Amino acid sequence: MATEQGLQPQALGARNPELGRCGYFVERKKRFCRMTPAPGRRFCGEHGQYEEENDRKRIPCPLDPNHTIYEDQLQKHLKKCNSREKPKPVYYVQDINAGLKDVTKIPEEQVPISSLSKEELQDLIRKLKKASNGISSILKDPTLSHWALKEVLNDPKNGESAFKHLKQQASILGHMEQLHLLGPGRCFVEFGAGRGKLSHWVDTALQDTENVHFLLVERATTRFKVDGKHRKRDSIFERLQVDIQHLCLRFNFGPDSSKEKHCKKVLMIFLH
């Protein structure tokens, strides 16, 4: 049997490999490799170079050295390797939301108030009073709530951080309901969706409403997504992995889009 150091596993007190498993002994782990070899082979693909009748050479993948490939299959592998650069989706348009690049920014000169003359200070006060005229100085708490989150808001298992986010989501839903934004024939675009919790609660609030579509925009790869729970329901959930800087929604709501037929209104939602 082959080992990392060329030692026989018997010398290391190792037993024979499990039935149907690779015969390569991994000294670092003090056990045999547990990968399954191809029919008629003693070693798996990663350790195939130890096959006595096999003179094919394995090399690290140039796109991802964490796995190896047969050297004579390099070109074929590069076309299907999961680490290859994939074609950009239709909704990706480079820097479409980045603003004008050719505009020269002129930084405004900042001076301390203490350096202003009496006349300049009085002029500044007049401008501030004029700008603030009619603005109510009493701040109202606009926090609302929604029945869809009533149960989880009262769940004592939720910690302080979770409760804060649930309260914010409930308030957003409360405002949406107050503005009559929850209804059929709508597409909700959630920016910075993360796990998709906000869309999840919007869908819960909509219950059995028809013709509802969700676009969850998130630039990072996200684990433990909750939109997978809605695959068997009437609502359609779609994820767009892209930075908002490069997101062009024209391709999602154009005349050839299925959403154009069902979504009469498009609403942007986010929680930050």
UniProtKB/TrEMBL annotation:
<protein>
    <recommendedName>
        <fullName>tRNA:m(4)X modification enzyme TRM13</fullName>
        <ecNumber>2.1.1.225</ecNumber>
    </recommendedName>
</protein>
<dbReference type="InterPro" id="IPR022776">
    <property type="entry name" value="TRM13/UPF0224_CHHC_Znf_dom"/>
</dbReference>
<comment type="function">
    <text>tRNA methylase which 2'-O-methylates cytidine(4) in tRNA(Pro) and tRNA(Gly)(GCC), and adenosine(4) in tRNA(His).</text>
</comment>
<dbReference type="InterPro" id="IPR021721">
    <property type="entry name" value="Znf_CCCH-type_TRM13"/>
</dbReference>
<keyword id="KW-0949">S-adenosyl-L-methionine</keyword>
<feature type="domain" description="CHHC U11-48K-type">
    <location>
        <begin position="58"/>
        <end position="85"/>
    </location>
</feature>
<dbReference type="InterPro" id="IPR039044">
    <property type="entry name" value="Trm13"/>
</dbReference>
<keyword id="KW-0479">Metal-binding</keyword>
<keyword id="KW-0862">Zinc</keyword>
<keyword id="KW-0489">Methyltransferase</keyword>
<dbReference type="Pfam" id="PF11722">
    <property type="entry name" value="zf-TRM13_CCCH"/>
</dbReference>
<dbReference type="GO" id="GO:0030488">
    <property type="term" value="P:tRNA methylation"/>
</dbReference>
<dbReference type="GO" id="GO:0106050">
    <property type="term" value="F:tRNA 2'-O-methyltransferase activity"/>
</dbReference>
<keyword id="KW-0863">Zinc-finger</keyword>
<keyword id="KW-0819">tRNA processing</keyword>
<dbReference type="InterPro" id="IPR007871">
    <property type="entry name" value="Methyltransferase_TRM13"/>
</dbReference>
<keyword id="KW-0808">Transferase</keyword>
<dbReference type="Pfam" id="PF05206">
    <property type="entry name" value="TRM13"/>
</dbReference>
<comment type="similarity">
    <text>Belongs to the methyltransferase TRM13 family.</text>
</comment>
<dbReference type="Pfam" id="PF05253">
    <property type="entry name" value="zf-U11-48K"/>
</dbReference>
<dbReference type="GO" id="GO:0008270">
    <property type="term" value="F:zinc ion binding"/>
</dbReference>
